[in-house]
Design goal:
By secondary structure, the chain is an alpha+beta fold. The protein has one domain (2-58). 29% of the residues lie in helices and 14% in strands. A hairpin with a 4-residue loop joins β1 (47-50) and β2 (55-58). It starts with a helix and ends with a strand.
Amino acid sequence: MQELLDYLQQFDTLNEQQAELVTSKANLLELPKETYFSEAGKMPKQIGFSTIENQLQRQ
C-alpha cells in the first residue's frame, strides 16, 4: 500500500487523515500472470494501481 501512497504524494502532499482514508478504501488485489485487469469495451467500475509499473488503470 505504501507504493500507492508514494505515487500519490508525487502530485500533492497527503496528510495523515488523507493517507488513512486511501488505505482504508483500497483493496489489495493480486492478479495471476497473463490475467487482464480490464477488458476493452466495458465500462470501468474501479481503478487499479500496478506496483510493478506504478501506473493507474481503470476497470
